[in-house]
Design brief:
alpha+beta; eleven-stranded mixed β-sheet; 37 strands; 750 residues
């Protein structure tokens, strides 16, 4: 029941408010005022305390009056008295509400009666937005029923919206026409008998359609729309209601797109971008859609002095979009190259755009051109966008679209294209840092996520407590396996006390490699294990995967092209570990095939361009060169052969895995070990042959691209302070006064 009483101290003329329910726990108080209310009236307890939660809405009426709505919680235990102030009317009313009162549910028709269009917009926005959250009504069946009734009352015969395609098991694409004069859309809601929700993905407005309408596309969850629903579209000054019929059996996105028979690149990117933010199935569907329905590639053709150009590299990742290509501008007409977002809006690259001189083929002849790469951070996607679009903008104001061919979806292939994007002679640290590195880093993480140990094959009975675990990564080149396994088997200490773990980083060779190792096991009766990776993940991932399988406290990392030529080398190295100097890593002497020195410890120095590079002590000098045969501490040792304490290896995180393909991981690991205050020793009495870079030379992305320069930049960006300290203070010791350097030797890898 509702009691309305006057106070002797205040004026109480006027009618009492109507009180009704929006759901069993929420009351709606309704006053009709004869004039406009320009201020929000107060509502508080008779003791002057604020009421929380409460919400107020003023709905203008066609006759010039105001319908004042107040939403409050229904009292639970005992009657509650309120003072309601009616603003400019100068009136205060005391209202007492009994929690046991028999209130009816709100009547949608009466609530909307005589309310102006702007008032209806305000009411729908409040009911679907702020009020639903404030009073927690989203799961209320009675509130949902009231909303459905209200929406149906606003428009007698709403226009139709149509579900046109299935995006995934959970999502559908909806099409609806809106007036061109509707303005900007603020929100879209689905209202059905199952509930109501705001669409998470903003709608996409295509170009103007027939009869002064613009076609608007929306992405919605399928749940709750199977039996029909309402679309409520709110704008700054407009409200539109569309009826969505029961969802039929829908065509796939690709089938619907091809059946349309027309291209809309902005809509295509809108759909891809929305699906990219979905679950795994939605992201896979986004890739399939791009592959089945590619855009036509497009370049700018010149002639007669007009500009020409092409984008041949375009990669969109979660960190931004990278493009690369070339242009010719004989008359200097090009103002800029811009990137397009999913709405077709052009964005200049600004400081993230770099040019360099080059050549292209034109009519079977080589002509000069300008190469370029650009990175734009704010266009991002969790799913590769295979054809990001660009514009060539001329000083005249004209704009020419450039669309690349579909880019590779595999992160390794996409990374390979980036590594070929800029010729090495034009590559600078600035281009790497501001342009290439963010995208390469993202692709590297995606690649590593797919590169895991797939299975382990054992040959013979394995040692339970080996003295050393020898880990050897294999990539493509298996030519040295026979010699290496034979050398292991001929060393009594290795064959008796060590376990051998091969890690195959080129899984397409699994059958060949297993067959070869099984035969070598039968020949030498030496236990071995083969870890097969799911895909090529690079030197660091392969080594770390092998280390995870190790059972010993000492791990020997050995390249597949390192061959021992004497027994006892590993036992000697193991004897140098630990001790009062806390030696955590030991490296041997490595020789070239002709017997000259390849490695006698590693140090760091800048090249003529100021870049920090890795160098090997005394490289190229004779094996018996005196200083190369002194056991000593060194800044680092090569990953081609190093013995490490497993505990230290794990504590520093093993090999850092974001270096590309294979380079600088070994020096990075050594610097991590030194930062942890452990020593690293070079032991010349342990000597092996290293047929250098036989595996990595098969990787064209490394040899022809910029991987080594990228890795050098990444390494220096992390360790430049420590490298400078080594160089300045001659730390650890015995840095040669007259070093023999190899400018091409910048790191080590499998």
């Amino acid at each position: 029941m509702l009691e309305f009483a006057s106070s002797d101290a205040v004026r109480t003329t006027g009618d009492a408010p109507d009180v009704c329910l929006l759901n069993p726990e929420t009351l709606l108080l309704i006053w009709d005022m004869p004039t406009r209310l320009w201020a929000v009236p107060k509502l508080e307890t008779t003791e002057g305390k604020a009421i929380s939660p409460q919400a107020t809405l003023r709905l203008p009426l066609n006759g010039g009056g105001t319908r004042l709505l107040r939403l409050i919680r229904r009292p639970k235990d005992e009657p509650v008295s309120f003072l309601a102030e009616a603003g400019t009317l100068g009136r205060k009313d005391e209202i007492t509400i009994d929690p046991e009162g028999d209130f009816e549910f709100a009547n949608a028709s009466m609530l909307l009666e005589d309310v102006t269009p702007s008032g209806r917009l305000s009411l729908m926005s409040a009911l679907l937005g702020a009020w639903a959250s404030m009073f927690r009504t989203r799961r209320s069946k009675s509130y949902t029923a009231f909303l459905n009734k209200l929406v149906s009352e606003i428009v007698d015969t709403p226009q139709r919206a149509k579900a046109v395609a299935k995006l995934s098991d959970q999502q559908i694409l909806i099409s609806a026409g809106l007036p061109v004069a509707f303005g900007d859309i603020e929100a879209v809601y689905i209202v059905s008998s199952f509930g109501f929700r705001r669409l998470a993905v903003p709608p996409h407005e295509s170009s103007e359609g027939p009869q002064g309408k613009k076609q608007t596309y929306m992405i919605a969850d399928r749940d709750g729309t199977e039996n029909g629903a309402y679309l409520v579209v709110t704008g700054g000054r407009a409200l539109a209601i569309r009826h969505l019929a029961a969802t039929p059996v829908l065509p796939s996105l690709s089938r619907w797109w091809l059946a349309r028979g027309k291209s809309d690149a902005d809509l295509r990117e809108y759909i891809i971008g929305a699906m990219a933010r979905g679950d795994t199935k939605a992201r896979k569907a986004a890739l399939e859609f791009q592959l089945r329905c590619p855009l036509s590639s497009q370049r700018v053709t010149g002639g007669g002095g007009l500009p020409s150009g092409e984008v041949d590299l375009a990669v969109t990742t979660a960190r931004g979009t990278l493009i690369g290509g070339w242009y010719r501008d004989p008359a200097e007409m090009i103002a800029s190259i811009d990137i397009l977002d999913s709405k077709g809006t052009a964005h200049p690259f600004g400081d993230g755009f770099y040019r360099y001189a080059g050549n292209v083929m034109d009519d079977d002849r080589t002509v000069s051109a300008t190469g370029f790469v650009g990175f734009y951070r704010d266009i991002q996607s969790q799913v590769p966008i295979l054809q990001p679009r660009s514009l060539m903008r001329l000083t005249s104001g004209s704009r020419h679209l450039m669309v690349p061919t579909a880019q590779p979806i595999d992160p390794a292939e996409a990374r390979a294209r980036i590594l070929r994007a800029v010729p090495p002679q034009h590559l600078t640290d600035e281009i790497i840092e501001n342009c290439l590195a963010p995208v390469i880093g993202d692709l590297q993480q995606k690649l590593l996520a797919a590169a895991k140990a797939d299975r382990t094959i054992e040959f013979g009975e394995q040692l339970k407590e080996p003295a050393v675990s020898i880990v050897v990564p294999l990539y493509r080149v298996l030519d040295f396996l026979r010699a290496q396994v034979g050398a292991f088997a001929c060393d009594p200490w290795i064959s008796r006390y060590c376990e051998v773990i091969y890690v195959l980083d080129s899984p397409e060779q699994a059958e060949e490699c297993e067959h070869l190792l099984r035969g070598l096991h039968l020949l030498y009766d030496m236990p071995m294990r083969l870890v097969v990776m799911t895909r090529n993940g690079g030197y660091a991932r392969a080594c770390n995967s092998g280390a995870e399988q190790a059972r010993s406290d000492l791990i020997a990392m050995l390249n597949s092209d390192v061959i021992p030529y004497q027994i006892g080398w590993l036992e000697l190295m193991a004897s140098k570990m630990g001790g009062p100097q806390d030696v955590a890593a030991v490296g041997p002497k490595l020789l070239f095939e002709d017997g000259s020195l390849q490695h006698a410890g590693m140090y760091f120095a800048r090249n003529e361009r100021g870049q920090w590079l890795n160098h090997h002590f005394y490289k190229g000098l004779p094996d018996q060169f005196r200083d190369a045969n002194v056991e000593r501490s060194v800044p680092g040792i090569t990953g081609a052969c190093m013995l490490l304490h497993r505990g230290t290896f794990n504590d520093v995180g093993g090999f850092t895995e974001d270096y590309v393909i294979g380079d600088y991981e070994d020096s990075d690991l050594c610097l991590k070990i030194r930062k942890a205050d452990f020593d690293i020793k070079y032991v010349p009495d342990a000597s092996l042959y290293h047929f250098e870079r036989k595996s990595i030379s098969t990787h064209t992305d490394y040899m022809l691209g910029v991987a080594t320069q990228y890795n050098a930049w990444l390494h220096a960006s992390r360790w430049s302070d420590m490298l400078e300290d080594f160089h300045k203070n001659d730390v650890p010791q015995n840095r040669p006064q007259n070093r023999v350097s190899d400018k091409d030797d910048q790191g080590e890898a499998a």
